[in-house]
Design brief:
The chain has 9 helices and 4 strands; from the N terminus they run ββββααααααααα. By secondary structure, it is an alpha+beta fold. It is globular. The model has no long low-confidence stretch (mean pLDDT about 85).
Length: about 260
């Protein structure tokens, strides 16, 4: 559901050993360190307002800000482990890239593009299946939902209405449509054209995501979010234990402290 008017709009990113939370003007992260202690860090986040009223560009800008926070987190909390900061995951990503290219060569047209798009999800699936990442993804959802409902994280659901997984369906659809149209327009699309389609697909998906939040009760919105919910339910999230919830509460407390200053 939409964020209550008296609450900050928070987003997050699961780490392999903790949680990163985004607020309107700051970021905060908490991790379970190797010695068992909980460590926190926070700071202001990059903010670009020039494109706030331009559909498409505003979504890409917000995503860019989220990625720009990552090196700040690593500087402030060097022990933080990112989701893809793992040799095995990088190996799967490389394999998925090769497999996707081979599939597109063998299967021409829409079928090949769709198959390649689905194969591209393999690294994310692999990352979530091992370690604590899926549990901390659940921590992210439960901590933010508990804050918005004035509840405790242990009692909140591990699936969340605004999870980035809800971008999956619109992004796959937009990228597929854009790629097919590009190949019809150009005999040999180059990397620049392909990159432009990827950016446009992402921008369109973010706008659909925002529309879905504003029209949460719409049947179309619910249909668009169903793949994301199933992804969260099946393997994207896992019920965290109390030690992991403690890390989530620490991250939430730190972002609220940082935003209040």
């Amino acid at each position: 559901m939409p964020v209550p008017e008296d609450k900050l709009r928070l987003g997050g990113m699961a780490l392999r050993n903790g949680l990163l939370v985004h607020g309107p003007t700051h970021w905060a992260a908490a991790i379970r360190a190797a010695d068992g202690t909980v460590k926190v860090a926070s700071g202001p986040k990059p903010r670009v307002t020039a494109f706030d009223d331009i559909p498409g560009l505003r979504g890409l800008t917000r995503l860019g800000e989220a990625f720009a926070v990552i090196p700040l987190v690593k500087r402030g909390l060097p022990e933080a482990k990112l989701a893809f900061e793992n040799p095995s995951v990088l190996g799967v990503a490389a394999g998925a890239s090769v497999a996707g290219a081979l599939v597109k060569r063998r299967l021409r047209g829409t079928g090949g593009e769709l198959s390649a798009a689905l194969i591209s999800l393999a690294p994310a699936v692999f990352a979530l299946r091992g370690g604590e990442l899926a549990a901390y993804h659940g921590v992210e959802h439960k901590a933010i939902a508990a804050y918005e409902a004035d509840d405790d994280a242990a009692d909140a659901q591990k699936e969340h209405e605004r999870c980035g997984s809800h971008l999956m369906a619109p992004m796959l659809a937009a990228n597929l449509a854009g790629t097919v149209l590009l190949k019809k327009a150009l005999d040999k699309p180059n990397a620049l054209a392909g990159g432009a389609v990827a950016l446009a697909s992402t921008a369109a998906a973010v706008e659909v995501f925002a529309w879905s939040e504003r029209h949460a009760e719409s049947p179309v919105s619910k249909a668009l979010k169903r793949p994301g919910y199933e992804l969260q339910r099946a393997f994207g999230t896992r019920e965290p234990d109390e030690r992991q919830l403690e890390v989530g509460r620490a991250a939430l407390a730190e972002i609220l402290r940082a935003e209040s200053n």
